[in-house]
Design a protein that fits this description.
This protein is mainly β. It has no helices and 10 strands.
Length: 143
């Protein structure tokens, strides 16, 4: 799967269905923008549980409730920032073809922590907004 979302940025990943109604997602992302602050990277681990009845055409449920954790790291010339978010959101797989889906996501992310390490000292940041919107769009190709 590939997609773009907040706070995970542009990302690619894999999904592992371990039972018909549940799965794990593993995503790696980046902002692909190298500026004065450096490049931002994200790693997300997500768990999804499908609810509602199976769609008769695809023989699977298309709505899911998702929870996960995202780690973001930005390394600049003189500092390194590490942050984490706890994500909770709803998603709906929209079929485009038999094995291709688009998945919009909508929910919220709870800011857990941020640590900024400079060359000679470390600062823990507590000044961020605690809850931020979580939204995104994913293109899924099932094999």
């Amino acid at each position: 799967m590939i997609g773009a979302s907040v706070p995970e940025l542009y990302h690619a990943g894999i999904r592992l269905h371990y039972i018909p109604k549940a799965r794990f997602d593993f995503n790696f992302g980046s902002d692909f923008n190298k500026d004065d602050n450096g490049r931002l990277y994200a790693l997300t681990i997500n768990h999804a549980y499908y609810f509602k009845k199976n769609n008769w055409r695809f023989n699977k449920a298309l709505w899911s409730i998702n929870s996960g954790i995202s780690f973001l790291v930005e390394k600049g010339v003189h500092e390194k920032s590490t942050a984490s978010y706890l994500n909770l959101y709803f998603a709906r797989e929209i079929p485009i073809a038999k094995k291709i889906f688009i998945q919009p996501e909508l929910g919220a992310s709870y800011f857990l922590f941020e640590q900024i390490a400079f060359d000679d000292y470390t600062v823990k940041s507590l000044s961020r907004t605690r809850i931020v919107p979580k939204f995104g769009i994913i293109l899924i190709m099932k094999i």
